[in-house]
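Researcher: I'd like a structural prediction for the single chain below. Treat it as a standalone chain; there are no partners to consider.
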Amino acid sequence: MSFPLIILLLKVRAPVYYIKYPRGSICYNQVKTLRRSCFDMKKKILKKNDRILIIIMLALLAGILIYRAAAGKDSGYQVVIYVGNEVYGTYSISDDQDIRIEQNGFTNVVRIKDKAVWMEESDCPNQLCIYQGKVTQPGIPIVCLPHGITVDVVGKNK
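Model: Treating it as a single chain, here is the predicted structure.
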């Protein structure tokens, strides 16, 4: 149970009690009548210019979110699969498909779905390529070192 904190504030005319409750504050003067203003409580917290600034910031944020959503529909990214130092194939990230790579007795399956690419299956001993997860943006390759396979997401111009 929490009790209100009472602070005696000395002013020029009469002492003012400022009672702080957990859910709000109430000010009383010496005669115990409720006062409307204590520490300039009449001042508005948000002024007109503050509200305009908040509306502008929210509109800007909404514009950025709409732009990002529209840009994500046709990203133009491609998935390039390398086996060793040679390009095995180039695929669009927008097309859902499974690519089976069989080289030197090893098998890997790369899945492209929902504009993301990941290593679905691999018969390598450590399985680290599978644990790398989904990649949707350029710059983070998926690498299977035992098999020498690299899956990379690149832009259309590369």
